Amino acid sequence: MKVEEVYQYAPTMQPRRLISAGVGRVPAGFPSPSQDYSDTKIDLNQMLIKDELSTFVVRVSGDSMEDAGIFDGDELIVDRSIEPHDGHVVIAVVDGEMTVKRLRVTDTGVVLQAENAQYPDVTVPELSDLVVWGVATRCLHRL
Amino acid sequence: MQVQEISAVTSNSNDLAADQKSVPPTRRADSQTYVALVDVNSFFVSAERVFDPTLADRPVVVLSNNDGCCVALSPEAKALGIEMGTPWFKISAGADQVGLVAKSSNYELYGSMSEKVMGILARFSAWIEVYSIDEAFLGIRGTLDEVQVLGRQMKDEVLRLTGLPVCVGIAKTKTLAKLANQTAKKVPELAGVCVWDRVPELTRERLLRRLPVIEVWGIGVRTTKKLNAMGIMTVKDFVDADPVAIREKFSIVQMRTLLELRGTPCIEMVYEEDPKEQLIFSRSFSQPVTTKDEMEQVLGIYAQRASGRLHRHGREAKVLTAWAMTSDFNDYQSHQPAATVSLPGYSADPVMLTKAAKSLLPKIVDGIRYARAGVMVTDLRDAGPHQMFDEFVSAHEMADVGELIETIRHEQGASSIGLGRAGLQRGPAWQMKREMMSPRYTTHWDELLEVKAN
Question: Where in the numbering of this chain does the UmuC domain appear (chain B) (predicted)?
């Protein structure tokens, strides 16, 4: 790529703006004493997301995880970078469906546990049969 | 080529850092610079499959605008004899019978998944050229064994974090990296990673002898016809041809391709600079841009992306350069218009940058097939309170239009709003027929992936 021409163009100036520019600001005056303290904000991303690239948000449908504090319509923050372990709330693929369950890995086998007495656990015959899509790290629940 | 000066492997990833502790690859005598080409397998289809497990192992096609024709195919769909460009109306009637699923293009989803992939790849090398939505060249260093391991890690990491399968081709030149990538896709034993120089000589020879010359990156239909007429049918024939004769018969471009196939780097990496010095937003188009109107839209989008990046880095610029170019491999036309504009003041304002980028438009010739365009901002400084001292601030800046747009884009996504034609980015999309579109899982709160708790 080479530069062929250099343009200089004039901005469209509106006199009104020059006047309004001064309102509420003192460009060369005494700076506000709070200025040094005002440069940070509470950033939810920073708190809720460890790695933006591996993080997805999903929405829950159903009440089988209520005892874990996950309700119908809640959003879950899912981090695919986390290796699933016993006790994690995971998004697993069961019969072609994305399902949220508590992962239980014991000597006797792998179980996808519901957190609601009305729902049965799903026993996974072979660990290799289990596809974990991601590990849920947070639940966004409306109060 | 600037390869030698750059130590490309960064150690953002902990795994990588651990690996390097024992044997720092850059110090080894047998360590060399290589080019890796990473691309997502059937990208659009794969992106759909990440969110819909019922699509796994089924034949799937993704349709072009207005559900016209197939622009992406799963291997299962290819096996049914469906080809790129097959019109949907021709196969829709029999689709159910063979279990074929069609999806409208979900650009929002593909764009956001592409950003994730590129972000992950950028952790492996500071030296990355995003070549298109689903492929990137990376400069890497190491011994043959080390780059093999690195290729493997790239593949595993992208799959783990995004669910997208990729193939990696690693070689001394870009053209060979492309060839290695194709090989990685075709030979299952390679498990998706092909380091060209590790393939046994005999196997390489056999491969080159089997591949028709049109398979080479940058060799088009017209060149192929001429080459065939000269008796050059396979890649091997081409590699063995006399480079000077090729240059005389064709041009320097084809000679460079030939030398690249022999392992001499001739096609430079285009990489994005450190935002401290300059900032470039540039992409190859999936389809050539051939009109001023389209180019205006492209430049608007790119300028606003550049503005977004400046905002993110807390920088502002004084000079903007916009350019467009035809493909290096375009035998018919060659046009590289560029325009540099000195802004009236330091700015990161999207209005200002868009206006400046459009200075290129008078130089765009309707009918020429542009393959790539870009916007570069230079003469950067930290954005700060000093901007209020500038006399030449644009009208929009004063009205805080730029900031407002940036806020909306931040909250609603990069393509939610824009200026001028860039604002129309989704306009046509709304009118577009996208009847079989999956939800925009990663960009819209009301279209999130549903997980069952039952």
Answer: 35-220
Task: Work out the minimum CA distance from B207 to partner chain A, whole angstroms.
Answer: 35
Question: Is residue B120's pLDDT more than 70?
Answer: yes
Please state, in angstroms and rounded to a whole number, the distance separating the CA atoms of residues A92 and B210. 43
Instruction: Enter the ipTM.
Output: 0.75
Q: Do the Cβ atoms of A67 and A47 come closer than 8 Å?
A: no
The pTM (predicted TM-score) of the whole model is 0.69
Q: What is the CATH number of the domain that holds A132?
A: 2.10.109.10
Instruction: Report the domain count for chain A.
Output: 1
Residue B136: phi and psi, rounded to 5, are -145, 145
Sort out which chain A residues have CB atoms less than 8 A from B389's CB and list them: 27-28
**Complete DSSP assignment for B111-173:** HHHHHHHHHHHTTTBS-EEEEETTEEEEEEEE-HHHHHHHHHHHHHHHHHHH---EEEEEESS
Question: Domain range for residue A119?
Answer: 2-11+51-140
Taking CA B328 as the corner, what is the angle to CA B325 and CA B334, rounded to the nearest 5 degrees?
55
C-alpha B400: how far from its chain's center? 33
Give the phi and the psi of residue B142 in degrees, each rounded to 5.
155, 180
Amino acid at B449: L
Domain-located, residue A38: no
Contacting A residues, span 97-136, partner chain B, CB-CB under 8 Å: 97-100, 114, 119, 131, 133
Give the separation between CA B82 and CA B189, rounded to whole angstroms.
Answer: 26
- What residues of A act catalytically? 64, 101
What pLDDT sits at residue A33? Answer: 63
